[in-house]
Amino acid sequence: MSQRGRFSVAHLDILKKEGVTLSGVVGIYSKSKNHVSKIAYYGLYALQHRGQMSTGIAVNNNGFIDYFKDLGLVHEVFPKETMDRLRGNIAIGHVRYATVGDATTVNAQPLVVGYKKGALALAHDGSVVNFASLRDELEDNGAIFQSQLDTEVIANLIARYHKDNIEEAIIKTLSSVDGTYGLVMMTTDYLIGARDPYGVKPLALGKYEDDYILASETCAFDTIGADFIREIEPGEVVIINEDGLKSISVNRKEKRLCLFEIIYFARPDSRLDYKSLYLARIEAGKELAKEAAVEGDIVIGAPDSGTIPAIGYAEESKIPYAEGLIKNRYVGRTFIEPTEELREQGVRIKLNVLKENVEGKRVILVDDSIVRGTTIKRTVKMIKDAGAKEIHVRISSPPVLHSCHLGMDTPDGEKLIANQMSASDIKELIGADSLEYLSLQGILKAAGGMGYCTGCLNGDYPISK
User: What confidence tens digit (pLDDT) does each residue in 241-268 have?
Assistant: First the structure.
């Protein structure tokens, strides 16, 4: 059942939800257009890879905040008649994937609330680490919570601090929050964007004609036809209204962008930290070929995220690149399915082997990462069953050793295969003839140097639990 509503000062109906980690957000402010939800729709469409479980859009409609959200993909949730209803000159949108037990409509965003100063909508990519202590403090002071969503803590703090100036309320709120966020917020007058002090989560600023746009990745601007202006800086808050854009810095730290955005999450046609992800992944494949050379007849990539580093590996090694696995384009990302059963089923229908290319060949299979080991084990078996003579697995990132609490919903350590087993043991388990990973130095070189959070790889998180 979908969630739809309208909020004014007198209408309060906070939704019951749980926590959110990896998501995609978009926001747009227009002085002249009154139907910007359609622009937000296309931005969300471009960010669909960041979340395939649910989506929502909220709009400012003449001083009210209307919204609609539901489980499903963007094109499924927003038919034409729904989009025709969502009229207004400010809009924010959200796509997300669910953690276990979290795949319900009420857990979709944006979060829309009413309080004495007006109405507020929030769409959040990230994780508030001090959520529990902030919630306890707020409840001790009389706040009533109806969910476990960390975004609701942010909303409550803004409501608590908002006296006469929304800017001061946001500064006080974000100064109280420890964690990560690429955050877009909307009042009946403002579009607001905020990025966490370390810049772990991405957020970028663009312009479409005279309209400002915020999005998790620059690929959303390309889809809309907008121009990329710049990244929102770590600790920066941008406040956009009819007077233009105002920038405020809140507790800025040295940038530590999530390295897994480079490795896997973000689309290859996006730019993060002003760098082409496509070129970074090509370089990762080249570094991998230098560090983990092996004799082979063909190089293939595990679609889609292993394809680009596989091309780089082939270029550096001078071993021909070939198509070896054909992907069913209507299957989502198996890494972010909420249960092992769904991940297993997803792998079975996601890939098929091109037997003509692998039969009798020494195959070098390149993938971007191994998290649980489910997908790579089944992929190796499929290639062997198709007649490959040897299979040498090469991973264009270091082993994922640690669970992330800052926004990448990796499993607990006991479910991370590299945390529990050596590379030699993993090689035996997945049935490969050899297995090697790219070093941390290699992936950082490919990504253009330092300035990244590497916590899931070496435990060095900028923010403690």
Answer: 999 999 999 989 999 999 999 999 999 9
Residue 16 sits in which domain range? 3-255
Query: How far is the CA of 352 from the CAs of 24, 244, 324, 379, in angstroms?
Result: 29, 51, 9, 9
- For tokens 């090694």, name the residue: 317
pLDDT digits (tens, 9 = 90+) for 74-90: 999 999 999 999 999 99
Asked if residue 269 and residue 250 are part of one domain, the reply reads: no
Q: Which is nearest to 298 in space by CA: 359, 370, 235?
A: 359
Q: Find, among 396, 390, 328, 393, the residue nearest to 358 by Cα.
A: 390
Kindly state whether residues 286 and 232 are assigned to the same domain.
no
Q: Tokens 């730290």 — which residue?
A: 253
Sheet containing strand 111-115, edge to edge, reads 111-115, 118-128, 179-186, 191-195, 236-241, 244-249
Phi and psi of 308, rounded to 5°?
-65, -50
* Distance of alpha carbon 28 from the chain centroid: 19
User: pLDDT, tens digit, for every residue of 378-389?
Assistant: 999 999 999 999
Q: Which two tokens stand for residue 319?
A: 């071993």
Determine the Cα–Cα distance for residues 218 and 204; give it in Å rounded to an integer.
7
Which is nearest to 299 in space by CA: 318, 323, 321, 266?
321
DSSP annotation of 261: I
